[in-house]
Amino acid sequence: EDKVVQSPLSLVVHEGDTVTLNCSYEVTNFRSLLWYKQEKKAPTFLFMLTSSGIEKKSGRLSSILDKKELSSILNITATQTGDSAIYLCAVGTNFGNEKLTFGTGTRLTIIP
Amino acid sequence: DADVTQTPRNRITKTGKRIMLECSQTKGHDRMYWYRQDPGLGLRLIYYSFDVKDINKGEISDGYSVSRQAQAKFSLSLESAIPNQTALYFCATSDNRGDYNEQFFGPGTRLTVL
User: Does residue B31 belong to the interface with chain A, where contact is any CB pair within 8 Å?
Assistant: First the structure.
């Protein structure tokens, strides 16, 4: 059975801090790893990492895939209150990512 | 207008009732999905559809059925709702043109079964 584990489950930091969220996976036929941000309701896509693209960066957010360690980290620097959300990690295990296995998420709270 | 819409957004129903959740998309994607989200369990796949004639069970399809009425519409039915189907339900869509396709989510339907 495919498994995706995220840590920590929740994290509370002050505005301006840097945070690192972790995602590890045990799956057959790994194809890609995706990060989503879930604020009020709908998860919104952040990054996709694959064997041909193991690092992604967008503004203050960056992510790295470690295929040897079967894990990924999501870094957020200079955090803002708008970064408060649940961050979801998902792993795609077949062509085209038809099937994603999600972790339970990390709830990040930024205190002003 | 939102690319992926879900109706209703909130629903309270009673045990044993039949209920349908609807999803529409304007993204032109062929692939559509239904997930449920429970606290501490993350998102779990109920059903997915590659096109109008291709529907597949996900990891937790028992107690649910789906209908793909058109490329843009995918509905989820609970034939006889039970309290442990209380959850947040998401519809998602994805393209089929690349090797790797991210999924785009609708706003969710919060369903409560009493």
Answer: yes
Is the C-alpha dihedral spanning B32, B36, B42, B44 positive or negative? negative
Under 8 Å CB-to-CB from A19, ≥6 apart: which residues? A11, A13, A75, A76, A79, A108
The closest CB to that of B40, out of A4, A43, A104, belongs to A104
Helix (H, G, I), strand (E, B) or coil at A17: coil
The answer to whether the CB of B37 falls within 8 A of the CB of B87 is yes
- A 10 A CB-CB count for B17 gives 13
pLDDT digits (tens, 9 = 90+) for A1-57: 889 999 999 999 999 999 999 999 999 889 899 999 999 889 999 999 987 778 899
What is the C-alpha to C-alpha distance for residues A69 and A112, in angstroms, rounded to an integer?
35
Report residue A16 as tokens. Answer: 């301006």
